[in-house]
Amino acid sequence: MTRNFIKLAGASLIALVGSAHISMAATTVTFWHSFNPEKPNGQALEKIIDNFEAANPGVEIKPEFIGNYNDIVAKLQAAIPAHREPDAVIMEVTRYGLFADRGVLTDLTDYVNNDPLKEDLFGFAREVGVFEGKNYIVPFNSSTPVLYYNKGIFERAGFTEEPALKTYDDLLKVSKQITEKLGDDGITGIVAPGQFARWGLVMDNDSDLIDSKTGEILLDSDNTIEAYQWMASLVHEHHVASPDGVTDEKKGGRDAFLSGKVGIMMNSTGNYVRSKKALGDDLGVLPMPCNKVCSVPIGGAGIGILSTAEQDVKDAAYKFISFAASAESNAIWFSGTGYMPINKHTAEQDLAKDALAGKPGIDVAINQLDFARGRPRPPVVTWMRASEYGLWEAMALGQRDVKDVLSEFATKTREEAARLAK
Amino acid sequence: MARKFLPYFYILPLLAFIAVFTYIPIATSINLSFREWDFMSATKPFVGLENYQLLLTSTEFWNSVKITAIFAIISVPLRLALALMAASFLTSEKFAPRMLRGAFFLPSVTSTVSIAVVFSWVFSTDYGVANALLKHIGVGKIPWMQDPQLALLVLILVNTWKQIGYDIVIYIAGLQAIPQELYDAAAVDGGRRFHVFRRVTMPLVMPTTYFLLVISVIEAFQVFTIVNVMTHGGPASATDMLVNMLYRVGFTLFDIGTGSALAVLLFILLIALSLIKSRVIGRKVHYEA
């Protein structure tokens, strides 16, 4: 009896030491991201992680869903002084400049230059990861805004064929007709544009928020003001967009479109699969309007590595980043979410071929790439984007004059840029 | 000698706990309020009173003080009055009052985030339940969350609904402690219900009222979750209360120095308010029947 007990205890000890050895041998990479595991985007990411771990038994990726891009920025800031930051993090393409500037992110230039992946990435995908000549993130989920519409609502509003949706006037005209015909059923014409779409509509009006080449603040330029005036008028003047979409972009905007309460929504192509699931064959996808010029912003996010991570963790994290941007992984991501392919060979994968053949509209964002532009990412952009939400609310609800707001905002942004540059 | 220090040894764990979670953060906050920092920079240059000067000369800060004061002035008396009224009817130990006590208390132990999310659906202009119900009685759409005054009113209502259960329970305890003989004597003297309430109940429940007043004013000045989830301080800064502004300045605009200065000012303001309450009302509170 005693002998058996000693044998059992010995075996347990060996097993314990063995498992401890195995777990010590594995490199763990904590990875903060913004994709809800219960939604298609999160499920596609999980699949990529599973594939990576199967191919790299020595590395464990520990994903943590943090919230949206703003939540990641806020939580990362709090985590840094507490030394509780992750090893790798998803960062939105205009917001990582501040973290790169402050030395929070690792310079990945050498990793990227020595990685054959570099040649496989599209030009736009390579560009979004570069800040002041160095590579700080590798793109994972790239997007442009597209114009989604509900065919069923269009039909009920009396459109027998697809109307022109090329200019601001076209959008307003169609939105008015939908609201007039179906307003009594609680249906409105258009979703009040979210921040990504607002930036796109400013670019369509031949302007920008910050000049991507010179860094000049363009918030108070005539075309930017004109674009904001038009966007705000959809809500408070023409009443074709619900004010709920202004005070709550997600619930009052996107969710209303997904539940068949709105005719048109301009939003990231990353919403494609979710929208298709919600609206089925009623979903139509078109390029963004070209009001004065055709121009769309490139959005989405890339993965960066924290400079505080140990060298072996950095190496393992980059291995994952590179794997996630490979043609195979990118095909899973593209077909499962609707985000744009970033790898030149993604379209050759069966999954991608099937998606392109069987999911009409998923290629609209890709076709827009001819006139897609990367956006500026100086440190002040993070501050500017965080401040813009409240100001947009005041403008869209008609509580403040657009020109006054943007002039004041431009001045403050210039001051903040100067303060950050100190 | 050892005997002399033994009591201090016993309270050491608790002192350490309070120091780590209260005193050290307060001291750190005060220190940071005199510095410029964005959470990421290696240095935290000393800027003297610059952060305080920036706040005290900014319209945003005074707007937040005004809104928080309005919120407290409306919500605290509303909470206390409704709670005392409800508690008066719920002191009995019968089945129905006991059930109702539980029902009133339920929101107090429910997640504030969940409550805020649900109420933002309820008060959504185009897609909300409130307007859908009002439509049936011929009332047009009310922009609950877009009108500056209404948005503040909605926050007051939601906060009252969330907190009132706690106030009721405390008031019930206070009411049950009033000796029955006093009510009997008042009845013999022919006192009417209202007079008995004013002359007997109100003065004797004053210690409870004073306690709840102190607690609810502090809570009103620290309200954050419902603001952050339901309005983010909008529309047009109409609900940008002090703690929401603190979060915005510190965590979304990366100015932790100014955010800390705001926290220190809020701390001073709450101490001042408590002292005023203690001087003005505290002296009128009698703790014996």
TrEMBL record, chain A:
One family name in Pfam for this protein: SBP_bac_8
Subcellular localization: Periplasm
One GO term describing the cellular component: periplasmic space
Keyword match Electron transport: no
SUPFAM superfamilies noted in UniProt: Periplasmic binding protein-like II
InterPro entries xrefs: Bact_solute-bd_prot1, SBP
Key words of the record: Periplasm, Signal
Signal peptide (UniProt feature, chain positions): 1-25
Main localization, broad class: periplasm
Keyword Signal: yes
Record family assignment: Belongs to the bacterial solute-binding protein 1 family.
Name of protein: Carbohydrate ABC transporter substrate-binding protein, CUT1 family (TC 3.A.1.1.-)
Species this chain originates from: Cohaesibacter marisflavi
From TrEMBL, chain B:
Pfam families, sorted: BPD_transp_1
Gene Ontology CC annotations of this record: plasma membrane
Residues passing through the membrane, by range: 7-26, 67-90, 102-123, 150-173, 208-231, 251-276
BP GO terms, sorted: transmembrane transport
Domain of life: Bacteria
Name listed for the protein in its UniProt record: Carbohydrate ABC transporter membrane protein 1, CUT1 family (TC 3.A.1.1.-)
PROSITE patterns linked: ABC_TM1 (PS50928)
Annotated keywords: Cell membrane, Membrane, Transmembrane, Transmembrane helix, Transport
InterPro entries: ABC_transporter_permease, MetI-like, MetI-like_sf
Family: Belongs to the binding-protein-dependent transport system permease family.
Domain ABC transmembrane type-1: residue ranges: 61-277
Subcellular location(s) per record: Cell membrane
Membrane topology: Multi-pass membrane protein
